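Hey team,

Sharing the 3-hydroxyacyl-CoA dehydrogenase run so nobody has to redo it. Sequence (369 residues) first:
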Amino acid sequence: MRITSVAIIGAGTMGGGIAIGCLAAGLTTRVIDLDAGSLTTLHTRVQRFFDRAVEKERMSRAEADAAIGCLRTGNALADVVGADLVIEAVFEDRQVKRDVLADIGSHLAPDAIVATNTSALRVADLAASLPCPENFLGLHYFSPAEINPLVEVVSGPLTAAPTVAAALAFLERVGKTALPCRDSSGFAVNRFFCPYTNEAARLLDEGIATTGQIDHVACAAFDLAMGPFAVMNIVRPRIALNAVQNLAGLGAFYTPTAALIAAGETNEPWQIEDDPAPLPDAVQQQVADRLRAALFLPVLEAIGEDVAAPDDLDLGARMALRFGLPPVQAMRALGRARTEEVIEPLTRQYGADMPVAGLKRAFDAPQTD
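Structure output:
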């Protein structure tokens, strides 16, 4: 199936960004939101995005106007009728998403593809809301969706192969890089990024270092432009907490720490000092190893569970999160013995097994540059 028309449910930050990407590719795009104010804001956002693209000479005025002209809006879920692809981008709540999917079911064409833009909810838990679960999958965009190149393509247990093929062709048309992954809590990227941010909050909780010091060590350890606290301020602490909470069922290691819970409940940004005091070498090494362990352990578990291939996990870290030194590459640089030494304290503290299958695949798999 060739996708030529898209309906997006939700005109917020993610829905609007997804819409802009579709418009830029020349796709007829209808954005549906019950709030008229959100649709007005969307029109302004779309106009500003394409005006800026013209100013920066990324496209001509005629091309920008043509893209803007592909936008349609509506305030009823019935407006999904006729769309080849429907992307649900509403609030990250299982019941809210189930209700929306159930409500659009009767308005879908028999071969319409439906995708949920969820960062952590299982596709299998949402599929029953639709009459044709074989046409349903996850498309997890990363913020800002109009710019970030990566999209996780999540196949549920009932997702049909032609559905995945059509989704991959759609993503190629709109200029996105697809990361196929299995339907598992956190999928590929959040499976390791959430524990990493949670461990940063735990280091703060324990008084080992300040937010600025932890960010500084993280940037040096993984060749990053921004550390975990700076990133959480961009996505907002409440959303960061919600993402971590969605992984809590995976075990004690994934349970959110007190500092993250407090920040998420207030949704106030982390206070990060501009010029943090240097840490003693031993403490700096401790912080770096704790952050490495919090990345390495979930990555290895995900590899062992066939959530995604080792190099695909690194692709996600590079493209979605801008890791200059992504986790699997970092482990390979350290070597297997040192990697096991780094993660052993975590396995002991939380009663987790050493991820032997993941270690074998990470270190035995053919390595790409």
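Residues 189-364 form a domain with the N-(1-d-carboxylethyl)-l-norvaline Dehydrogenase; domain 2 fold (CATH 1.10.1040.50).

Ping me if you want the raw files.
A.
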